[in-house]
Each structure stands twice: as C-alpha cells, then as structure tokens.
C-alpha cells in the first residue's frame, strides 16, 4: 500500500544486512524448530507448519495483519510465567534486585527465543517482505499521525501543507483503524522488544522517507520565507519525537540519544531538499536569503558533513543549467555574481566559493565577450545592476591591495601556524581542487576581484575598457565627459591610477576638443570676412592624442573640394591656436549631419524640390558631395575621385540607395555600377517609407578590428625573423617560439595555436609566407630565390 | 562627361538629367589627431601646405624624442598629459625635444660644469651644437605665454627671448 504523499527516492536498502540476517536466521531455524515458541510462531504465521525441516512459513504480503499478529505474540509473552512473575515483582516493588534480575533474565530468554523463531521463520521468503512490511507499517503509522497533525494545524498553517489532503480515501479508513490500533501495537512492540534490534532498519527507513516527504512539502520552492527550518524542527518535535518515543520505548530513546538523532535526520532531509534547489536559490538571490541562511544553519547542525556533496551538487547544477551555449554571457555573469554573494553569506571561509564557481570561471574565460560584458555592466548606470553597485561600494579597495592583503600583514610570522581545516576534505570528495584557493581576495569574495580573477590580470580589463571608452568618446557628439570622468574615477579606485592613465588622457582629449572647438568657432565667427553669406562654422573635431588611444581604423579617403575647404578652415585655425601643432584628420571617422535637397524643374518650368535630413558618416557625405557636381557617377569613377576602394564605394552608396537619394543600376558592359540621382517626385514618394537603416557595423566599431590586427602585426616581424634564420618551421614550433620570445616585451603573446594558424594563413594569402603540404611554413622570397638554380 | 553616360537607357532618362542635388552641411564632426609636425628624423617638417595635410594621414612615422625615447606626441616622464603640458621645443640646430627632457639635459650639463667636468656650453643632445632655443621657426616654441612660464627657471628663457 503506497503512502499518500509523493514518493521520493528512498535511501537505498542495504541488502547485505538482510542477507546476513537471513543466513543467521536459517541456521538458527533448524536449531530451534523443536522449541515450543517455534510451534507457536508457526501457529500464528502460517498453516503449512511442517512443510520443510526448518518449518519456514510463507509470509503474507500485507502489513495490515501485522498488528494482530504482534498482538498474539505479545499475548503469548504476557501469558508466559516469567513475564507474570516479572510484573508481580514490579508491583511489589521489591528491593531485592538480584531476584528481579533473574526473573528478568528468564523473560528475556523467552523473548529472544520467540524473536528468533519469528525471524527464522519469516526471513527466508523472497523479498524480505516481512521486514519490508514493518517498514510499510511504520510509514503508514507515521503518515497517519502526520495527517492528523496537519488537520489539526490546518487552521494555523497555510495552504502549503494542505495540498495533499484530498489524496485517496482508502487511506483514510486505514488511518483511522491504525490510529485506533496504535496504542496496542506499541505495547506489543514494547513487549516483544524488537524495535531497537531486529526492526532497526525498517524503522529508520520509514522515519527517513516520511521525514523527507514531509520536509519536501514544507520546504520545497519556498525560499523567501523566514523560519522554515524552525517549522521543520517544530514538526519534528510535534510528530517525530512522540512517535519515536512510543515506538522505541523510553529506555532506548534515552540510551540511543534519539532526540539528537531526530534533529540530525530532520536537518539532513532539509539539506537534501535544498540541495536540489541550489540553482534557483542562486538566481533568486536577494529574495532567497532566508533560505540560504537556514541552509547554512542546517549545514552547521549536521557537523558540516554535507559541504562536500553540496558543492558537487552546486557545481553540477551550474554546469547543466547555466554553462551552455544558450545562456547569454551577461546572464552567466549575473548568476556568477549571485553565486558569489550566496556563498559569501553561507561560507565565510571562501572554500566552497572556490570549488563551486570554478567551472563558471573556466567557462567565462572561454567566452570572447566576457570582458566587454563585465565592463559594460560596470559602467552602465541603467542596466548595470549588481556590478554598477559593486563599483560604487564605499568600502571599495584597490585590487592590488586586496590581493596583497596577506603579505602586508603586520603580525610577525609564526611557526605554529596551521592551515584551517578544509570543510571539504572531511569526506575527501573534491580535495584535489581545494589547493587552488590562493589569495585572500578570493576568500573574501570581492566580486570585482573574482571577476578580474577569471583572467588573472587586470591589464586585459583596462585594455578592453579603453577600447570601449574610445568608441564611446568618439561617438560623443556633445563632448560631454562628466559621466566618463565619474566612471573613470571609480575605476581608478579599484584598478589603480597608473593603469588607467591612458584612459584619463583620452577623456582629457575630448574635454580639450570641446574647448578648442568653441575657441575656433568664435574666432571664425568674429573675423568672418565672407560677409552676408557667411554661414556659421559647422566643423568640429574630436582631437586625439593618438599614442594614448587604441588603434583607430584608418582608411584612405580624399575629401570633395567643398568639404575640404570647410575642414581645412578648422585645421588652419587649429594650427594658429596651437602652433606648432597641426591636425591630421582620420577622415572616415566621425559623424555628419547634412541636409540633402533634390531639386528640378518640372514640366511647367517650376522649381520643385525635396529636402531631407540625414546623419551619416563623413565617408557617406563625402561621396554624396560629388553628386552636387554631376547627377551621375560610376562606382569606378567615384573610387578614383575619393581614393576609396571600389568595394567601399559600393557599400557606402548602398546607404544612399536605401535613403532613396540615388538609384543604382548595373551597366551592361563590365561590372561598373552606375549611380544617378532619384527624381524629386520619386524621392518624396519614398519619404514615408524610407526605413532607418543602421550604418554598417564596421563604421561604428571604431577600433576593435584595427586593434586586433595591430596586435597580430607585432608577431609578424617575429615570425618572419625566425623563419629567416631557421628556414622552415611547423606551426607548433612557431607557437612555442613566440611564447618564449615575445613574453619579455610589451606585447604578451597570448594567442592560441588556432589563432596563430589563422594568422599564418592570412600571411600566406598576403604572399609573405608559404605553407608546404606537410605543414611547414617558410618565407616566400627565400623559396623563390632558391628555386632557379634547380 | 565620361563615355559611360551614353549607355544609359532608363525610361526616366529625362527626369534624371535635370535633377540636381544640393547638400548643406549642418554639422561635421570629424576625428583628428594632432602632431607636432616633427618627422622621424627629429627635424621639423616645414612644408605645411595642403598636400602635406593630405598625405600626412598615412604618415605613421612619428618622431621620437631621443632623450626620453618616447614619441613627441606622447608625454615625457613626469608629465601626465601630452600636448599642452608637455610641449616640444626646437633648438637653433633644428632638433626637437620635449621641453622637460631638454631642460633636464641642460640642467645636468650645468651641474657637470659646476663640478668641473663636461662641456663649457650647453649643447644639443643630438648634434652637440651649441644649444639655443628657437630653431628655424621661432614663433613656434616661445610664442605662447604658457611655454614662457614653464621656462622661467631654466636657462632657456633668455634663449627663448633672443630667439623671438
């Protein structure tokens, strides 16, 4: 008969125990088969008493009959003379203890004989169902009690405990019957004296499975409520304690310290339930704080034995639910942060933190956009969340300081220092990884330090930050740097002044640009000698100290004369203002707002026009400027005029085609593309439908591509150098040599062999290197010079 | 007109030909870098004409101040920001250095004088010619009051004035 509540996987049976019991029982069964007790047992338990030598009985597979059988056995014992005399003696309350002992002994003998007979006769059956039935009986009893208790408490407790109430009505009858029989059953059990010995295992199993079920119902999914553990313990006091007491009897209860055992069992079950929910606890972090606190209390209560398994479960939960391609990097970082926070609350030693988060750190290290993600959320006020707050913490410590804390201790070193005992080593499950716990900053769980620790150094972060800052500053049309200055100051607190010097210069450049721009504009305004049509100066510039900026994209481009005159005006004023400095324009960078007016004479000779405002890159505007001179241009001609590559011309003209300013068509002969202006009527028709097309991403990513390329360029000279000296080299060799030689210089060699292979292929394409079929790389020129003699 | 124009056969040919375009620039936000205009030789590029400005874009060869071995557009040791805080000065011989760098050099020469060793007159770190501020384009280095202020406690001030 199944219990009412949902079954959980039970702690596994130990079949060994039963086998041993059976073997022993069989031996004894032969010995005792002639005793009177055996005869009685046969009478109670079965009919075919004389079936075989041992007189083994086929046991009925129903625990419902157990109470009555137990009663019979108990009555047999009660009627036994030795029991009678024992009772009598207790009634007389005699001081003569010797005599009492003797009587006790004789009763014990009878009892033992009976037990031996029973178990000898019942053990042999296939499924240990006799013992099993006891487990069921105990379970049913406990469940019945639990249900009753729940009914009584349903007024106080809310619905979280009443869900199972309407399960199946068959059980209700059982329960009522059981509760009626209860008292008698316990008495029978007490007289038989089986519970502490023969029925120890079924009893414990029943206890554990019911506790597990109940706690599951009480606890699961409920993170944000305080006092759940208290409720569990309350339940233990209300149900488990009296039940155990009555089943096991007062003597054993005290002798075996069942009160403590029950508390342990309850805590353990609590931990088990929570262990399945670790991931949800983590993601719900601030709300799940009560659950986390209680979990750590329970962990302490069980003597920290569960830490090791907890960390394994946690790791597995993170791996299976978080570290897969479907999760966004920002999500992973978020969970990582909450994991750090949870563990900070749970385990101040930081040991769990190290073990649990290790796979996350490794995984994040493998993702390319991790740093970018971290920095974005560090500096993003609106969406930054946790990290933004973290950066603004008042007790923020510089990273180096946090990492060096241990060394800077003022206390003199002592020789009797011993490492703290590892909480994980007790069961030795993951002892191997504990050794990795290195710096105190990791122990302390400083989130930023943990994040930086993924990469081992802050340099990468600073580098990535400078790239992002460059992008942001160059896109900052208002030259408004307040926020960046603010962020920079905060970052300086954590990363140190020196490492962010470069970024400071960048911000200052933009500040200066603002001043220079207003200065130049006012100068141009005052001695504007162009009189009435003197339009206000339109050019401004972000003037960078390029040594301090990440590599910016460069591309050759020639301005259209009208644009050039305007830009030069600015350059000349700058040269006057900052003599002897002068400007070198990075012509394709920046942004431009223009008003495009298409006009024509219609059939009646009236002037019609269509005006639209467009913002685009300088390169786009430059191209369109050529259409002022002529309404038709071929892509090749434009490429020659602007010095842009023809590909880029086509790509950029695509923008104007989309804007319905020009239309394109392919010429029949050759691959030239012809662009001509769209007529006014068409342009105005298309006005509403003109969709906002994003500029091609490449124009925006001011520096990323250029940056990586430049990084690789550094290695090119090394590679060419080593090939010049050594002739042919395989990929691995080049890789290891680069590792050795480049390590000492400013540019660390941190590429993988795959990245190197890609780069080498690139060099082959540029015809600088050659790759032989057996994977050896060599210089091209060398090869050619060698060939002719053959 | 290029010959390609003739091959057009689109039906709205007429329309297209009389459509004109006018562009009004409302704002041109460019990106530029600044340079002291010192070539890799350490001597000034004086041809400040338009052609140079165009080709300058591809001119990657930044000069290096031989005293600090840093680019002229960088910051000399002890300076936080490049540019205004770390100006470049020219000697009469045409060689350029960061102001801080050449001042330190001249100071060390002076001290060498006092202790008996070293040359009698301050010399250019590059060519050992007698050092005098100014160079060919004198307005440049000593023109701004800013630079003059920095120069006050160095020997350079008198030289700067004589240059201008």
Please give the structural blueprint:
The complex is a heterodimer of chains A (790) and B (164).
Chain A: H1 15-32, H2 36-45, H3 66-79, H4 81-92, H5 97-122, H6 129-153, H7 169-192, H8 200-219, H9 228-248, H10 250-255, H11 258-275, H12 278-283, H13 285-301, H14 307-321, H15 329-346, H16 351-366, H17 370-379, H18 386-391, H19 399-404, H20 431-434, H21 440-444, H22 447-453, H23 459-474, H24 482-495, H25 501-526, E1 539-544, H26 561-577, E2 582-601, E3 607-616, H27 618-629, E4 632-634, H28 635-642, H29 646-658, E5 662-666, E6 673-677, H30 680-685, H31 697-700, H32 704-726, E7 729-730, H33 731-742, H34 753-765, E8 769-771, E9 776-779, H35 780-786
Antiparallel strand pairs in A: 2-3, 4-6, 5-6, 7-9, 8-9
Helix pairs in contact in A: 1-5, 2-3, 2-5, 3-7, 4-5, 6-7, 6-8, 6-9, 8-9, 8-11, 9-11, 11-13, 13-15, 14-16, 15-16, 17-23, 23-25, 25-26, 27-29, 28-29, 32-33
Chain B: H1 13-18, E1 20-35, H2 50-55, E2 88-90, E3 96-98, H3 99-114, H4 138-142, H5 145-151, H6 156-163
Antiparallel strand pairs in B: 2-3
Q: Outline of this structure?
A:
By secondary structure, chain A is mainly α. The relative contact order of chain A is 0.04. Chains A and B meet through helix 25, strand 1, helix 26, strand 2 and helix 27 of A and helix 1, strand 1, helix 2 and helix 4 of B.
What descriptive keywords fit this protein?
heterodimer; A: 790 residues; mainly alpha; Arc Repressor Mutant, subunit A; 4 domains; three-stranded antiparallel beta sheet; 35 helices; 60% helix; 7% strand; elongated; disordered C terminus; B: 164 residues; alpha+beta; Herpes Virus-1; two-stranded antiparallel sheet; 6 helices; 3 strands; 29% helix; 13% strand; Cullin_homology_sf (chain A); mitosis (chain A); Cullin_homology (chain A); WH_DNA-bd_sf (chain A); cell division (chain A)
What does this structure look like?
The complex is a heterodimer of chains A (790) and B (164). Chain A contains 35 helices and 9 strands. In chain A, strand 2 (582-601) and strand 3 form a beta hairpin. With 790 residues, chain A is mainly α. By secondary structure, chain B is an alpha+beta fold. Classes of the chains: A mainly alpha (790), B alpha+beta (164). Chain A: It holds the Pfam family ANAPC2.
């Amino acid at each position: 008969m199944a219990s009412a509540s949902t079954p959980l996987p039970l702690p596994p049976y130990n079949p060994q125990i039963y086998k041993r019991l059976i073997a022993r029982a069989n031996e004894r069964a032969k010995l005792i088969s002639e005793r009177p007790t055996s005869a009685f047992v046969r009478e109670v338990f079965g009919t075919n008493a004389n079936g075989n030598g041992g007189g083994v009985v086929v046991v009925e597979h129903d625990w419902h009959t157990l109470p009555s059988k137990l009663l019979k056995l108990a009555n047999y014992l009660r009627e036994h003379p030795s029991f009678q005399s024992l009772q009598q003696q207790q009634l007389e309350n005699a001081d003569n203890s010797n005599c009492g002992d003797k009587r006790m002994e004789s009763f014990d003998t009878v009892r033992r004989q009976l037990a031996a007979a029973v178990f000898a006769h019942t053990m042999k059956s296939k499924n240990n169902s006799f013992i099993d039935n006891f487990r069921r009986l105990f379970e049913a009893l406990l469940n019945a009690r639990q249900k009753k208790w729940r009914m009584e408490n349903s007024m106080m407790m809310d619905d979280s405990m009443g869900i199972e109430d309407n399960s199946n009505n068959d059980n209700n009858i059982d329960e009522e019957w059981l509760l009626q029989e209860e008292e008698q059953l316990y008495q029978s059990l007490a007289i038989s004296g089986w519970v502490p010995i023969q029925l120890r295992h079924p009893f414990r199993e029943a206890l554990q499975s019911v506790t597990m079920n109940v706690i599951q119902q009480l606890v699961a999914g409920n993170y944000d409520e305080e006092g759940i553990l208290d409720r569990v313990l309350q339940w233990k006091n209300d149900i488990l304690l009296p039940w155990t007491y009555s089943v096991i009897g007062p003597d054993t209860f005290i002798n075996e310290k069942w009160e403590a055992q029950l508390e342990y069992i309850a805590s353990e079950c609590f931990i088990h339930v929570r262990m399945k929910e670790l991931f949800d606890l983590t993601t719900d972090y601030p709300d799940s704080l009560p659950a986390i606190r209680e979990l750590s209390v329970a962990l302490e209560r069980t003597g920290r034995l569960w830490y090791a398994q907890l960390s394994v479960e946690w790791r597995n939960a993170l791996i299976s639910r978080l570290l897969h391609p479907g999760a966004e990097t920002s999500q992973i970082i978020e969970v990582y942060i909450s994991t750090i926070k949870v563990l900070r609350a749970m385990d101040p030693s930081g040991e769990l933190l190290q073990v649990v988060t290790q796979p996350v750190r490794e995984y994040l290290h493998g993702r390319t956009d991790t740093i970018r993600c971290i920095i974005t959320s560090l500096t993003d006020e609106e969406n930054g969340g946790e990290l933004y707050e973290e950066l603004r913490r008042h007790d923020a410590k510089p990273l180096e300081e946090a990492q060096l804390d241990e060394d800077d201790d003022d206390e003199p070193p002592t020789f009797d220092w011993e490492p703290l005992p590892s909480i994980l080593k007790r069961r030795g499950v993951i002892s191997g990884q504990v050794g990795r716990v290195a710096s105190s900053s990791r122990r302390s769980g400083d989130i930023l330090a943990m994040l930086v620790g993924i990469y081992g150094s802050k340099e990468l972060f600073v580098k990535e930050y400078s790239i992002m800052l460059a992008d942001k500053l160059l896109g900052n049309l208002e030259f408004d740097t307040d926020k960046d200055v603010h962020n920079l100051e905060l970052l300086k607190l954590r990363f140190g002044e020196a490492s962010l010097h470069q970024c400071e210069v960048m911000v200052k450049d933009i500040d200066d640009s603002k001043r220079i721009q207003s200065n130049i504009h006012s100068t141009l305004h005052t001695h504007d000698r162009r009189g009435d049509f003197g339009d206000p100066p339109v050019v401004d510039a972000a003037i960078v100290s390029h040594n301090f900026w990440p590599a910016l994209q460069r591309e050759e481009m020639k301005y259209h004369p009208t644009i050039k005159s305007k830009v030069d005006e600015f350059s000349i004023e700058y040269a006057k203002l900052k003599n002897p400095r002068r400007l070198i324009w990075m012509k394709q960078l920046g942004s431009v707002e223009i008003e495009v007016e298409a006009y024509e004479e219609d059939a009646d000779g009236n002037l019609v026009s269509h005006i639209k405002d467009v913002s685009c890159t300088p390169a786009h505007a430059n191209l369109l400027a050529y259409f002022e001179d002529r309404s038709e241009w071929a892509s090749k001609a434009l490429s020659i005029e602007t010095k842009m590559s023809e590909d880029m011309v086509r790509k950029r003209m695509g923008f104007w085609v989309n804007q319905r300013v020009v239309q394109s068509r392919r010429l029949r002969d050759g691959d030239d593309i012809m662009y001509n202006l769209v007529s006014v009527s068409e342009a105005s028709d298309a006005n509403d439908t003109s969709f906002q097309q994003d500029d091609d991403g490449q124009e925006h990513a001011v520096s990323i591509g250029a940056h990586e390329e430049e990084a690789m360029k550094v290695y090119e000279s090394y590679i060419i150098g080593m090939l010049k000296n050594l002739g042919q080299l395989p990929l691995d060799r080049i890789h290891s040599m680069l590792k050795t030689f480049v390590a000492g210089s400013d540019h660390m060699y941190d590429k993988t062999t795959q990245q190197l292979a890609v780069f080498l292929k690139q060099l082959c394409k540029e015809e600088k290197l050659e790759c032989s079929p057996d994977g050896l790389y060599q210089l091209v020129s060398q090869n050619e010079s060698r060939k002719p003699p053959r | 007109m290029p010959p390609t124009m003739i091959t057009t056969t689109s039906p709205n040919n007429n329309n297209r030909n009389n459509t004109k375009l006018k562009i009004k620039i409302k704002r041109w936000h460019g990106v530029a870098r600044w340079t002291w205009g010192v070539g890799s030789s350490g001597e000034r590029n004086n041809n400040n004409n338009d052609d140079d400005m165009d080709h300058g874009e591809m001119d990657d060869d930044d000069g290096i101040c031989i005293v600090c071995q840093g680019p002229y557009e960088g910051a000399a040791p002890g300076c936080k920001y490049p540019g205004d805080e770390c100006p470049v000065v020219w000697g009469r011989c045409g060689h350029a250095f960061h102001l801080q760098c050449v001042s330190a050099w001249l100071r060390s020469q002076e001290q060498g004088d006092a202790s008996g060793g070293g040359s009698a007159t301050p010399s250019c770190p590059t060519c050992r010619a007698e050092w005098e501020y100014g160079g060919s384009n004198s307005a440049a280095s000593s023109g701004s009051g800013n630079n003059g202020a920095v120069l006050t406690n160095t020997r350079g001030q008198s030289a700067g004035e004589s240059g201008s």
